[in-house]
Amino acid sequence: MNAFVQNQTRHYCSFLAECAVDALMDEVNLTPKPALVDRRGNGAHHDLTLELMERSAQSLKPMFEAMAQVAFEQGTVSQRLREAIGQIGRDGEAVMLAETQGVNTHRGAIWALGLLVTATALNSQKAKTIKAAEICQLAAEIACLEDRFIPEQTESHGQFVQKKYGAGGAKLQAQQGFPVIMHFGLPQLRASRAQYHPEVAARVDSLLAMMATLKDTCVLYRSGELGLKRMQKGAKYVLELGGYATDTGKRALQFLEIDLMRLNASPGGVADLLAATLFLDRVEQL
């Protein structure tokens, strides 16, 4: 690889990392989001703030850039690539936890966006145009490879929920090619834009479309099956009223948030997927 190509590659990897961080920043600043951290407050999270989430997102840029770089270096889906980005992700998580003093702000986003950044870097070497479906398929192929070097850990919230409720969680979403994004998040984002809804409303509608369908392990862990059912039913109802762009939709969203706050049900898994949705939407327009 000559010096010019190396320089172009570095710039592109940096750009993909910026897209990922921008997606995280756009997600956390999107307001309103029911029971989630946004510009109004902390939602159902006593340990999170907007400022903390923003600092956490910014701390992840070198990690995303390193993932893109290793994808360019290796050039294809392989066990070696899977384990390389796994280690980069663990190192990035350590940086995040140091920045947040131990608060888990973006562990789920590291997984989802890390896979998508890697897949985009791979895809861009062969395809003339970037398509979300192709990126998600590549991400699925990577996610289906097991990382042999994952250290033994105590049971995560997601693993606990998987055992108790049979919900697949973030790992299965990735291994299936992010179906909630491809079938609900992205289509709703673009459908709302096509109806000339404001961008904020389109993004809130995208969030709601995924809330209405995802078995969010964060919600299941915090509020059980009752919380999940109330979230899904309430989000679906807002969309049936025309979404956040309508007055009736706005009122229904307010009632949904009151309900979720009472149940301590915060859709953190959906928030991660919204950031991933915004990333895919951005890179598909390149």
Care to describe what's here?
With 286 residues, the chain is mostly helical. The chain has one domain (3-284). 72% of the residues lie in helices and 0% in strands. It is built from 13 helices and no strands. It has helices at residues 3-29, 50-59, 61-74, 79-100, 107-124, 132-143, 157-165, 169-175, 179-194, 199-211, 217-240, 247-263, 268-284. Helix 5 packs parallel to helix 13 (268-284). It is globular, with a radius of gyration of 18 Å.
TL;DR?
The chain is mostly helical. It is 72% helix and 0% strand. The protein has one domain.
In terms of topology, how is this protein built?
Layout: H1 3-29, H2 50-59, H3 61-74, H4 79-100, H5 107-124, H6 132-143, H7 157-165, H8 169-175, H9 179-194, H10 199-211, H11 217-240, H12 247-263, H13 268-284
Helix pairs in contact: 1-2, 1-3, 1-5, 1-13, 2-4, 3-4, 3-5, 4-5, 5-6, 5-13, 6-8, 7-11, 9-10, 9-13, 10-11, 10-13, 11-12
Keywords:
ATP binding; transferase; mainly alpha; 13 helices; CitG; globular; single chain; nucleotide-binding
- Bulk shape: globular
The stretches of 5 or more residues where confidence is low (pLDDT under 50) are: none
Order of helices and strands: HHHHHHHHHHHHH
Average pLDDT reading: 96
How would a textbook summarize the main sheet? none
Counting H and I runs of at least 4 residues, what is the number of helices? Answer: 13
Structural class per helix/strand content? mainly alpha
What percent of residues are in strands? Answer: under 5%
Helix content: over 70%
Q: For the terminal residues, how far apart are their CA atoms? A: 24 Å
Question: What Rg do the Cα atoms give?
Answer: 18 Å
Q: What's the number of structural domains?
A: 1
DSSP E strands, number: 0
Function: Involved in the formation of 2-(5''-phosphoribosyl)-3'-dephosphocoenzyme-A, the prosthetic group of the acyl-carrier protein of the malonate decarboxylase.
GO molecular function: ATP binding; triphosphoribosyl-dephospho-CoA synthase activity
EC number: 2.4.2.52
Pfam family, one: CitG
